[in-house]
Amino acid sequence: MNSKKLAEFIDHAWDSSIVDRLVAYVRIPNKSPMFEPEWERNGHMLAAANLMADWCRAQPIAGMKVDLRQIPGRTPLLFVDVPGELPGCVMLYGHLDKQPEFTGWHEGFGPWDPVIRDGKLYGRGAADDGYAVFSSLTAIAALKTQNIPLPRCVLLIEGSEESGSVDLPAHLEALGPAIADPSLIVCLDAECGNFDQLWCTTSLRGNIVGQLQVRVLEEGVHSGMATGIAPTPFLILQQLLARIESANGTVLLDALQVPIPHDRLAQIAAASQVLGTGIAGKLPWVKGAGPVSADPMELLINSTWKPTLAVTGADGLPAIGSAGNVLLPQITLKLSFRLPPTCDAAVASAALRSRLERDPPYGAQVRFEAGSAARGWNAPTFAPWLLQSLSRASAEIYGRDAIYSGSGGTIPFMSMLGERFPQAQFFVTGVLGPLSNAHGPNEFLHIDYAKKLTRCVSMVLADYATSL
Prior knowledge:
By secondary structure, the chain is of the alpha+beta class. Helix content is 36%, strand content 22%. It contains 14 helices and 18 strands.
């Protein structure tokens, strides 16, 4: 393989077409079905899928088949099948659905208003992870132009990942034997600790998203009449949350705890030495605020192998400008629990419901409903060829060692694939580095890093072919 030609091909593809298509993709508000129940009627999801499918069909790859698959009531799936010259199969995964808008975008920026500044493409979804299909197919095409033999490669780009991949099982069942039995799975939906080297994700946390509702009164009552007699829903919520989380943020339920494997602890130690204060520094702190610990290793453990709770939304609390002196009748909180990679999400969900609903304070009506419960994932041991390939790619392209670390996020498809293909090797990586802020305001794609990551994918595919 000619490394110089590989870089030239990939850079040209990004500069001549990929960035332009990602700009157009950012403009499409194709929110995941959890956040946009009318996704099918408004047509945005299909528009985004067609944008990607049209680009794929325009690529000069002999024998490639591009299939935009649709099942009634399900988000579309883009399935690209590239025939190979060698036995075996590689699966490359990404998703096209997006998180909702969120608030706090810089002036002149917005979730659906793409802006390129300082080598970064700002807007919702480009980094998480609309770039994946473009990067994956370009990595394959770059090798094809040099006549490097490859096994069959299939691309799966789904439309419901941000909703827990709820539509994916139906598509996998419909595909049947077309999926084959991949022995290498490449996923470009993960994080990178910095933009200076290759980052390989070795684990993903699970996720439970649910609603906790407390109801005390049939209707709101003048606070001067009711406070001191009736408990407020907020008071009861505080007591309920204290059952599952301590004042310092430690989740208390045994069902959500797991032992951390020794090899993962060693990887965390190595990653924390590389990142140091950058682990906390990647977040957009307000002046004076800081992390829960000054120990980088503790922060990495907390964010990859410890359970955590975040309150991400509320109903029943009026905006301040509309809030009168009223004791509210009910409040509902949206809770997001991140689970350790090997924690059983179903068991954890049942334990949470039992703890929150049992013996409600003051006899209030308390209900916890888990809307989704996604399992985490712990990667199998890397094969020697893959370890060597990742190290070589990072050293050649970035000039630094590859780093192996867990991710605090959740990719439901990885646990599905891990169970379905237990012998497969996994190369899970991504472009979500410091301040790239997926799901939040000012999300961006670091274009140069994405180009280099595409080259890494090409090198790993070529090395996989020689290992067969």
